[in-house]
């Protein structure tokens, strides 16, 4: 298969997403020591909210506010204030995953590149600017802006429309989350590549076209799959 368009997820596909460090950094400004035990409680609540968001049961604003309701009450501040501070901290500590810059450099000018992310506008735009990656991409689709999250078809349709509606057989979606990136691509009718991080198991019934364990491996995979 020869690809002319490649779509990427953002968090843990192109950028590291260390939420624990982001929360710890943010809460230092409030004089709060944030432990791993504290993080586990936040992580459990946040994960449940993300499932609801991806299933279309709640919107992005509800997710962002609700995940900080308990902590905001303890600190006597508004949940939205904590969410904004958290996104600022995550942008500040953002680092590309190993191999991301080299991969994008090798693809830029040979294929058209896009991002489809279930992340939030404020963070995504800041990270692209912070890392210097913005110029690589001709499409940036943020689920918050279109009101639907992967695996829904709307983000994928928006990306292809932004890229000139290429033949679906020439498009590849790369992401680390089977339930949103791979399942969404499969349902939409485009090929998928799962970036499988260490310790993450597959899911029955969700089969990516390709599986890689690093962006270096992805670069090797794509070496003979880019349309000349």
Relevant terms:
globular, Rossmann fold, 228 residues, 2 domains, alpha/beta
Describe this structure in words.
The protein contains 11 helices and 6 strands. The chain folds into 2 domains: 5-16 and 96-222, HAD superfamily/HAD-like (Rossmann fold, 3-Layer(aba) Sandwich), CATH 3.40.50; 19-93, Putative phosphatase, domain 2 (DNA polymerase, domain 1). The N and C termini lie close together (12 Å). 37% of the residues are buried. The longest helix has 19 residues, at 36-54. It is globular and about 60 Å long. Strand 4 (171-175), helix 10 and strand 5 form a beta-alpha-beta unit. It has a 6-stranded parallel beta sheet with strand order 3-2-1-4-5-6, sandwiched between helices. With 228 residues, the protein is α/β, with parallel strands linked by helices.
Topology:
Blueprint: E1 5-8, H1 19-28, H2 36-54, H3 60-66, H4 69-75, H5 79-93, H6 100-107, E2 112-117, H7 121-131, E3 139-142, H8 143-146, H9 153-162, E4 171-175, H10 178-188, E5 191-195, E6 210-212, H11 215-222
Parallel strand pairs: 1-2, 1-4, 2-3, 4-5, 5-6
Helix pairs in contact: 1-5, 5-7
Radius of gyration: 18 Å
> Any idea how many domains?
2
Query: β content, as a range?
Result: 5-15%
What helical percentage do the residues reach?
40-55%
- What is the CA-CA span between the terminal residues? 12 Å
In the CATH hierarchy, the architecture of the largest domain is 3-Layer(aba) Sandwich
Q: How would you state the average pLDDT, rounded?
A: 94
Query: Which fold name is given in CATH as the topology of the largest domain?
Result: Rossmann fold
How many strands appear in the DSSP assignment?
6
Largest sheet: 6 strands, parallel
Low-confidence stretches: none
The SS-based structural class is alpha/beta
């Amino acid at each position: 298969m020869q690809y002319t368009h490649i779509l990427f997820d953002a968090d843990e596909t192109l950028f590291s997403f260390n939420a624990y460090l982001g929360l710890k950094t943010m809460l230092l400004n409030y004089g709060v020591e944030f432990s791993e035990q504290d993080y586990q409680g936040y992580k459990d609540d946040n994960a449940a909210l993300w499932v609801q968001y991806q299933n279309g049961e709640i919107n992005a604003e509800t997710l962002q506010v609700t995940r900080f309701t308990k902590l905001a009450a303890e600190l006597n501040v508004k949940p939205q204030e904590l969410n904004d501070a958290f996104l600022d901290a995550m942008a500040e500590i953002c680092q590309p995953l190993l191999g991301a810059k080299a991969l994008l450099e090798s693809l830029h000018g040979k294929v058209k590149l896009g991002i489809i992310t279930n992340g939030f506008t404020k963070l995504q735009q800041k990270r692209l600017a912070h890392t210097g990656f913005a110029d690589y991409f001709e499409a940036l689709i943020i689920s918050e802006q279109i009101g639907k999250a992967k695996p829904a078809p709307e983000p994928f349709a928006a990306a292809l429309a932004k890229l000139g509606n290429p033949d679906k057989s020439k498009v590849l979606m790369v992401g680390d989350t089977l339930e949103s990136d791979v399942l969404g691509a499969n349902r939409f009718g485009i090929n998928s590549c799962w970036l499988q991080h260490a310790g993450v198991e597959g899911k029955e019934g969700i089969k990516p076209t390709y599986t890689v364990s690093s962006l270096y491996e992805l670069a090797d995979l794509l070496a003979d799959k880019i349309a000349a």
